[in-house]
Amino acid sequence: xxxxxxxxxxxxxxxxxxxxxxxxxxxxxxxxxxxxxxxxxxxxxxxxxxxxxxxxxxxxxxxxxxxxxxxxxxxxxxxxxxxxxxxxxxxxxxxxxxxxxxxxxxxxxxxxxxxxxxxxxxxxxxxxxxxxxxxxxxxxxxxxxxxxxxxxxxxxxxxxxxxxxxxxxxxxxxxxxxxxxxxxxxxxxxxxxxxxxxxxxxxxxxxxxxxxxxxxxxxxxxxxxxxxxxxxxxxx
Length: 236
Fold this sequence. Notes:
This protein is α+β, with helices and mostly antiparallel strands and 236 residues long. It contains 2 helices and 19 strands. 18% of the residues lie in helices and 42% in strands. The protein has a 19-stranded mixed beta sheet that branches.
């Protein structure tokens, strides 16, 4: 009797564990399905034209998703000529020097946008990026700040070098085409030169400049070391 009682208890225990595990797995599946349903709307959609423009007075403009870019001049307009804002709207009140009036173009995750700067330089801003630039460039230099990634096609001007500030790096050019990847979460800044010539410097080691030739890519790490290697520029 002891033998049969022990066997019956063991069999009952095995059956109970199987039923409990089946119930647990069923509950977990339902939880996973519920989580999937609640988060599926957060999936990043394929990239498209999407950006906002912050004016000097803090006004935030949602740009037309049907347009591919904007052009800076006496007014802000889309590439088809449709006006977005005139000079009175995006000038900072009382600011006499337009080179100190800053605007900011920002793209969301999955978005991209193009801008033609006051000097004619074209910039293609990639997703989750920001470009901070002045209403008008100064007489001795052209300077912008990049957070994220962008491709630059710089108009040549031997009297005013074009500078791109990103993290702790400064890029100086006269007229060239290059790509900069400087997302805040990345440990390194990558600069790829398509044509022309660029000069790279670290803020903390400005005297030690690095020059890129077409078809080269630099990797600038947090340690301050700049490594240069050949790269295929076809994707850019």
